[in-house]
Write a structure and sequence with these properties.
The chain has ten helices and five strands, in the order H-E-E-E-E-E-H-H-H-H-H-H-H-H-H. It has helices spanning 3-32, 128-173, 178-198, 202-229, 239-249, 256-286, 292-321, 323-331, 336-340, 343-382, and strands at residues 46-58, 71-77, 86-91, 106-114, 117-125. Strand 4 and strand 5 (117-125) form a beta hairpin. It starts with a helix and ends with a helix.
Length: 383
């Protein structure tokens, strides 16, 4: 058989296997998401709909330019059972609910019905198109700057989000351990992303093994810190709501904190693992005469700078997520002993440091695996 025919046959088999795997995955996810959820709050008497403001009946604009009180507006429903109808609605002047309305403003309304009585209020601006446009802009930037690799990155991101939304969430609702569910998500995401970006190669295999190891280290580190500091998933801020959900649905609330740490540390571990594996492969191709030890030390030297930057980025991300809590603590001038021993501080430190430990220990493992496998392949080719 001619070489080009053999290569074409391999591509056909590869794409056929990929399509078959995709089909099986979609069938499984369809079944997996077929869940009869326990009703926690009855929403039968209220509905959320899209609407457009047609008229301002009473405005709340003051002479000094501020807004106090509520607006009364006329809105026309754009969907739902009242589509096309025009009703009066109240828009509250709040930070979390309501909106500043003008004629033509698209909003989301909340309508409560009791018998013949119907009350409509403006819940928020209709931000759906803005969110999707922002996501599209991000994907376009990845494509324009990263080219084919950027599109692969987008595909990896989509798969990760699909796994979290359509596998992880139903899994914990069905009673599966959140930690086990997170491990499965991390494992599948790592394999798919690395094979997509690096193909079937020593580089991808090294990055996969390093990423999985780093995520596991992060989880073990967080678990160990939680045991010693006596911090568990029952010490989070919204625990009362979560316990109520656990009693109704059976979701294992206590493990959610550590499952979240596994997922959040995945990105940093994948980043440094693939970067180090790629760097070692490039060094090996540029100078195939380097020994196994020299390859390993080259990977470590390249990775040390990246390790510091990546770990710093991860910790800063956790700090940024808790910035509102830090501002409150600072403004109230809370005593040091109170702040350092609070559960919120302990949880933030646990998340940041455990993720950083996973990244730090990913570096030597990926360097070792890549150097051993690349040097071993060179020796095999020389025989």
């Amino acid at each position: 058989m001619k070489p080009w025919k053999s290569e074409a046959k391999k591509k056909i088999i590869r794409y056929a296997a990929l399509i078959l795997l995709l089909g099986i995955s979609l069938i499984f996810l369809k079944y997996w998401n077929n869940i009869d959820k326990t009703e926690i709050v009855s929403n039968s008497a209220q509905s959320f709909d899209r609407a457009v403001v047609t008229q301002i009946v009473t405005d709340n604009l003051q002479e000094n330019g501020s807004r106090i009180g509520n607006q009364e507006v006329m809105v026309r429903f754009l969907n739902g059972k009242h589509k096309g109808e025009e009703v009066k609605a109240v828009s509250t002047n709040g930070s979390l609910y309501g909106a500043t309305c003008y004629p033509g403003t698209k909003v989301v309304t909340l309508t409560g019905e009791s018998g013949e009585v119907s009350i409509t209020s403006v819940y928020s601006l209709d931000r759906e198109w803005i969110i999707y446009a922002y996501l599209a802009l991000f994907c376009v930037m990845l494509w324009m700057i990263g080219g084919k690799s950027g599109l692969k990155a987008v595909a990896g991101l989509i798969v990760t989000m699909l796994l979290i939304l359509f596998f992880f969430m139903p899994a914990i609702y069905r009673g599966m351990s959140p930690i086990l569910s997170a491990v499965i998500v991390c494992f599948i995401t790592t394999i798919f992303t690395m094979l997509l970006l690096a193909g079937q190669s020593i580089k991808s295999l090294s990055a996969i093994l390093g990423t999985v190891f780093g995520v596991i280290i992060s989880g073990i580190s967080a678990w160990g810190f939680g045991k010693v500091a006596m911090i568990s998933g029952y010490n989070v801020a919204n625990i009362d709501t979560l316990v109520g959900i656990q009693q109704i649905t059976g979701i294992s609330v206590g493990n959610l904190l550590f499952a979240g740490i596994l997922i959040s540390s995945l990105g940093g571990a994948m980043d440094i693992a693939l970067s180090i594996a790629s760097a070692i492969q490039e060094i090996h191709q540029a100078n195939p005469k380097l020994s196994r030890r020299e390859l390993y030390m080259s990977g470590m030297n390249v990775g040390r700078d990246m390790m510091g930057a990546t770990a710093n980025t991860l910790i800063i991300a956790f700090v940024g997520g808790s910035l509102s809590t830090l501002v409150i603590n600072y403004a109230y001038d809370l005593p040091y002993l109170q702040m350092i021993n609070s559960y919120s501080t302990g949880i933030e430190i646990m998340q940041g440091i455990s993720g950083g430990m996973g990244i730090v220990l990913t570096l030597p493992l990926v360097s070792l695996i890549s150097s051993v496998m690349l040097y071993g392949r060179k020796e095999k080719n020389e025989i």
